[in-house]
Fold this protein.
Amino acid sequence: MEIKADLKYTKEHEWIKLDGEVATVGITDYAQGELGDVVFVELPKVGTSVTQMKPFGTIEAVKAVSELFSPITGEVAAVNSTLEADATIINKDPYGEGWLIKIKVKNPKELDSLLTAEKYKEMVAV
Amino acid sequence: MSYVPNTDADRKKMLEVIGVSRFEDLLDAVPDEVRLKQPLKLPPPASELELFADLRKLSRQNVPVSVSNSFLGGGFYDHFTPAAADFIIRRPEFLTSYTPYQAEVAQGTLQVIYEFQSLVCALTKMEAANASLYDGASAVAEAALMAAHATERKEILVTEGLNPNYLAVLETYITGGAYQVRSIPLGPSGQIEPEMLKKAISERTAALILQTPNFFGCLEEAKELEPIVHTVGAKLVAVFDPISLGMVMPPGEFNADIAVAEGQSLGVPISYGGPAVGLFAAKKELVRRMPGRIAARSTDAEGKIGYVLTLQTREQHIRRDKATSNICTNQGLMATLSTVFMSLVGKQGLLQMARLSYAKAHYTAALLESKGFKRVYPAPFFKEFALELPVPASKVVSRLRKSNIVPGIDLGKYDKKRKNQLLIAVTEKKLRADIESLAEGMSFFRPQAGSGIAPERKLEAAGQV
């Protein structure tokens, strides 16, 4: 199970990578493993406002559905439309091609309240 | 599974195992203040003979269509059912099984549901159907909510032609103020006028609920109204008559987003108003928002065909308060009955039923018109029409009931302004003698002025039956 050192994490198993003003968000390898094959993701439209730790969508496996929580406040700048045709990309490459949304960030300092890779590793330690 | 009830000895043993001396000890958690201190006011136990005598007394107060000449409609109709249908569904495997919860164990049940869904899609030309809902009324309400969620809008547009019972259920469903219902009146023809729809619909509208044939029997110009609905981004919910699809354009062909109906006409007996079965179908793009259960066909690990309940993440046992609906069941036995009916009657049979109902209803209308009566609305109709009377419909109904004829629904019951209107439904089961008895009985109330067209010519035009 992979945990990337250069990312930040939420308690709800989302990861975030900030690049200037725009952050990319997805779910962790641990989360996709727990969910099983992802069958569907419901993501917001570009332009929607998101708030830190408030739900922005849902992710569905065959017998489970989970809310997706935004790691940061801002505006949705992009949505990964390739997931509509094949949501299992999230299982195969959760940190890369399986990204969910990109957010134009309001306040980068919000990242400080999130978990580092170390802390996330502790949280999911089996 | 044994249906033999527990004996006193069984009960004693169970209490011993649990570790209490009386059943009442298990109710210790219930506070004394809320306990009922006297026995329930129930009649004493009755023997099987006494019980049946009581039930028979009750049921005799009902006048079934099998022993009366009934022209009642308004959502439930006396349509033909092949005798084999009842025989098939009385098989215990069908009769006693409930909506499966450990679904994959009940392969036979799931297969029937899958076939039911497939037939509903074939009938309506819609892309996806669910395992059925309780009845047409709740199907309409669920469709309205589904459209509201899909569009994120709060206004539901209905028409004056929507079955008032369906409207009542819809209004109950949305009690609380989160959604509003607005109604568009019918034009003088008995149909919705495109200009009126254009004025009433807006970008606040989630859906137009369009019943065709409508409650008064009139066929709406759905193909003309559909673009008006979609231009503003609203959903078109078609409320249809299953038998009418033997003749009338199905919802899938006029681009309906959701199609719902009361499925009772598909072989389900009238039974004093129920059980019924709600048909629910929609476009594939909306399938994740559909209420109810959905069966699907898949393959197992060995590549063999197997049936499953699918898209369960919509339902409340997984999605809880964010579920698409609280309905997590279907109308199993009645859906099975409709499936058996559709299989036995088939395409040709349905076509025949539609054509005969249409012809007989038009013959009835022409016969009544030849006596001087007028229809309330001139629009084309399928098997039902509203008749204008010179006296209150209630008078006509009570007089004709004395000759064991139930001439139709007194529309005054739904709208005081319509107290002189009678809703008459005619199906393929009506014999010419039945129709002539109706016309004969109604003659007593015929309006005095003539109708203008020679009665014989009108009868010819409608076709002899």
